[in-house]
């Protein structure tokens, strides 16, 4: 909690929408439209032209009920972000099965050409231990369904980016350090000892 999962997801969304010119469907159950726009205003220091340019391809939703209609309006390739899967609708009695069904449904979108980013919390029993693919809270399907699993950890003054699953590439473990540039923006640090910023 509080390491920056939502911050990183929003930063990636802004980057994809601007640099790759790919539309982003952002299902936000954590912060809300006003908070995301406040963050964006801080990132771009209130420059309205830059904010509009950065967000013109981003479609923020506070409910996933519009998913089918959104997919009909925004064909692949597009990035779909769900923050967080623990907030997806489902019954209390069958919570895990409901989340597993959502993971399967969202996983199927990859085959249609969508890029899918799922934000998940880790279970409390995994706080302050080594990053682990089994840590994703309330659903085992993430462990099996995702191509790449990343876990953020505290690493001194920095946030460690740990690859805990990588289906198509051999690289795993700590792959980067992030430092907050301001409240809502990370920069990658090449060598934390030297504070070296990477491009």
Tell me the number of helical segments per DSSP (H or I, 4 or more residues long). 6
Largest sheet: 4 strands, parallel
Strand content: 25-35%
- Shape descriptor reads globular
Helix-residue proportion: 25-40%
| Structural class assignment | alpha/beta
Mean pLDDT: 84
Secondary-structure element order, as H and E?
HEHHEHEHEHEEEE
CA-based gyration radius: 17 Å
Low-confidence sequence ranges: none
Q: What is the terminal-to-terminal distance?
A: 27 Å
Strand order of the largest sheet: 2-1-3-4
Count of DSSP E strands?
8
Describe the model.
The protein is of the alpha/beta class. Helices cover 32% and strands 27% of the residues. It has helices at residues 5-20, 33-43, 48-55, 67-73, 95-111, 141-145; strands spanning 24-28, 58-61, 78-83, 114-119, 148-155, 158-166, 173-182, 185-189. It has a four-stranded parallel beta sheet with strand order 2-1-3-4. Strands 5-6-7-8 form a four-stranded antiparallel beta sheet. A hairpin with a 6-residue loop joins strand 6 and strand 7 (173-182). The model has no long low-confidence stretch (mean pLDDT 84).
Features:
199 residues, alpha/beta, 4-stranded parallel beta sheet, 4-stranded antiparallel beta sheet, 32% helix, 27% strand
Task: Sum this structure up briefly.
This protein is of the alpha/beta class. It has helices at residues 5-20, 33-43, 48-55, 67-73, 95-111, 141-145, and strands at 24-28, 58-61, 78-83, 114-119, 148-155, 158-166, 173-182, 185-189.
